[in-house]
Amino acid sequence: MNNKSRLFQIGAGAILALGGLAMASPGHTQSPEAAASPWIKTDQTSVRLISAIDKVGSGDTVRLGLQFKLKKGWKIYWRNPGDAGFPPSLDWKGSQNLKSAVFGWPAPTRFEVLGFQTMGYKKEVVFPITASVKEAGGTLKLRAKLNYLACDDICIPYSTLLSLDVGKGNGGASPHFQLIDKYANLVPGNGAKHGLSIDTIEMAGKARQVKEDIRKGFVRVVATSQVPFTKPDVFIEGPELAFFSVPAVTLSDGGRQATLKVPVTLEEDTKILKTDIRLTLTDGNRSAERTLRLTQGAASEAPAGGSLPLSLPLILALAVVGGLILNLMPCVLPVISLKILSFAAHGGAEKRVIRKSFIASSLGILFSFMVIAGGLAGLKAAGSAVGWGIQFQHPWFIVGLTVIVSLFAYNLWGIFELRLPSFVGDLAGGGGKPANHQSFAGNFGTGAFATVLATPCSAPFLGTAVGFALAGRTIDIYLIFAALGLGMALPFLLIAAAPGLAAMMPKPGNWMNRMKQVLGGLLALTALWLLSVLAVQIGTTAAVIVGVLMVAIGFLLVGQRRGQAFWSRAASVGLIVVILGAFAAPYQYAPAPGTDAVSKSKAHWVAFDPASIPRLVTEGKTVFVDITAEWCITCLVNKAAVLNRGTVFELLSGDQVVTMQGDWTRPDPEIAAYLKSFGRFGIPFNAIYGPGKEDGLVLPELLTTGLVMDGLAKASGNAIATSR
User: Fold this and answer.
1) What SS3 class is residue 663?
2) Conformation bin of residue 46: beta by default, left when phi > 0, alpha when psi is -120 to 50
């Protein structure tokens, strides 16, 4: 049983303890049939013990069965339940004349819910049991405590007692003989009676390192059949922390040979090479079981995005470069207005003032990066999904940021002046005067705000640095995010070191008022973009309401500036309502009709389904994966510049490539886990799979036509033409 199953079992046990007698006691019972215990009935299941004979007789064994009947949609679990659940278990303490009991497991069915793989049974199943008696011919009194888990949309653990007496005498077959025999034939044997053979199992190349305690790879199972396979599947049981997924199947030799390629995830220091692996092969009602020693197959190239042979000093250097490049990314363009205005405001100023102001902006950037690092470290310690820019997945953050951006725009348009608290004004040397771009607080806020709006972007080298940080220790997170902040602050630090650069700007004048009008318009466009993201997350109606409130606040601020007391009070109340409402209002992540992600509007994109990628690659297909979000401006740039135009668009929209797109606008655990498997925690993320790159070729954050075309050629084994 794997760790996930054990955790599930512990949780189920807690439910049992809290649930009291309603969970622990049986439901309805009825009079027993011959050679059967009474049915124990619940709202979801019925269960009983049955015997294949009505008397013990002179033999030393008795064939029994644990019979389940389940309501529509409900299931119970196999001996290896998969990613969750636990199997039925019997405790025979209290039985008389029972020496031992061997439990048989009919071949299971595979179930998938939200990407989780489980194995078990629906409708009806009988577990054959071979009971050995201590005294032949003596009465067999069976007393069994049964624990099991029944699941549909929810899971309910049950614990009950079963009681069956098989008397002594010369008996014959009971009415349940054929039913027990039927399910006994479904318990996998060596496969001979079904014409099946499990031939080999080997590692299909080397498992790649995703992080310190996780490796991913594939195992290859080869099986043969006397008649053509119809729908083969294989269930693999190995060491406790080895998790096996759905196989991709390739048939050959007229359908009589099956090659099953099974993804495997190894946690911590799990070893599976040269260990015994238990395999259960199924094909309809046919099955076979065999235990084989896993061997190493042909070596293969470690994929991009795997282990990083990088030291912390090198990662810190990459983080500085990534932070510097972040200044040039499109997501930072909205706050270029504040940077330009701050720079221009220092034209003709003293060097001391210039140096102080740009150091303040640098401190604002570094402070924001440390706040982000602290938040991510806390989320990681709590076991939550972490990633670069994930705050944009939450509507309350979008609403709050929309308020801030709108207020900045109104300030630049001269609708109102933001007055600081006296203690902040004293720190800035202004004594409570209106904030200006030469104050310490004003420049500090400029740097902090630039960092917040930079987080929807992933610059070159930034993905590598963030991935290394979030996959490592808490101290690594703080060190690497400090390096990112230092890189982004480098232009400000350069001007602080050489104040003459700012002094070369024209002296402040009327031209700055005109610039304020233009730059305020850019921030207003930023607010509209944020509202478009909100529309995708929680619906157009909510986005329109927030937008109308922002416009209304603008009119209220105009009234405030004219000195009208009523409008002043109304503006203050309006601000409080909107800001508090952004945090207090309930919301859900279900998108409103017509607000699906942009991927849905492109016919050639299909829904992201990572479990199907191995099967598609085995079939010889090339798969292009794009993980995107409405709030990811770099993603939109990649689409406009590369993916939705020219030769790349023609290839992706044709029949040579399967294009999958995952939308991370809202939180999605499957996408977070997929990114994490490559050591990545931010988007854009693009990978290409194919016969030449079965484990995926990861592309850089910023795409070019050449990078995509070369990647398609390499992944497809040069099956896709790259002329451009």
Assistant:
1) strand
2) beta
How many residues comprise the chain? 724
Tokens representing 96 are 């008389």
Give the alpha-carbon dihedral of 187, 191, 195, 201, to 10 degrees.
130
Listed residue (709, 625, 710, 632) closest to 675, CA to CA: 625
Number of CB atoms found within 10 A of residue 295's CB: 12
Coil/strand/helix, residue 201: strand
Selection from 345, 265, 118 nearest residue 673 by Cα:
265
| 300 has a pLDDT exceeding 60 | no
> Which amino acid does the sequence have at 243?
F
347 pLDDT higher than 80: no
Contact 201, 292 (CB under 8 A): yes
> Are the C-beta atoms of 239 and 270 separated by less than 8 Å?
yes
C-alpha distance from residue 132 to each of 61, 100, 708 (Å)? 4, 5, 66
Paired with 156 in beta bridges are: 150
Dig out the tokens for 59 from the structure.
């033999």
pTM: 0.45
Residue of 200, 175, 206 whose CA lies nearest to 53: 175
Any alpha helices (H) in 507-626, and if so which ranges? 510-538, 540-561, 565-584, 613-618
Expressed in angstroms, the distance from the first to the final Cα of the chain is: 53
**Going from the N-terminus, what domains does the chain have, and what CATH number goes with each?**
3-184 (2.60.40.1250), 192-296 (2.60.40.10), 312-584 (no CATH), 598-715 (3.40.30.10)
Which residues sit opposite 295 in a β-bridge? 202
Contact yes or no for 462/388 (Cβ under 8 A): yes
Give the mean pLDDT of the chain.
Answer: 76
Q: How many CB atoms within 10 Å of residue 46?
A: 17
The residues with which 110 forms a beta bridge, in sequence order, are 119
Q: How many CA atoms lie within 13 A of 498 on its CB side?
A: 5
